[in-house]
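For the sake of clarity, the format in which proteins appear in this thesis is described at this point. The fold follows as a row of integers, each naming the local backbone shape at the matching residue. One such record is shown here in full, so that the layout can be seen directly:
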Amino acid sequence: MNGNRIMIVDDNREFLNELKETLFLCGYDPIAVSDSLAAVRICRKAKPDAVILDLRMDRKNGFQVAEELRQGAGTRGIPIIAMSGYFPVERSASLLDLSKMSGRVKKPFSISDLITELEKVLN
């Protein structure tokens, strides 16, 4: 068990809870956040080692959340892994570069792909 604290932000509560449970079973300390408006505030308090961030959410999208995290003194160094099934891979690469995200996974993804991406940004 590595115990790394991982914050997951996704407005799909069922998916969020399943991913939280899976990451816990893989030895992480997951924090699930379903409200994109509260994500930055919770991140400042929780001080996660990494954030897994859905790009397409209702109230505030993942790019906006990532930008706020990048501007915060206490959150700017936290690696962010973007996850989305919406953006095509070619387009998402340039968007992620602009938003300075550390990695990405395309939904649907296997848990092994996510763990590989997590371990890359944590090391």
The chain has one domain: 5-114. The first helix runs from residue 13 to 25. The mean pLDDT is 89.
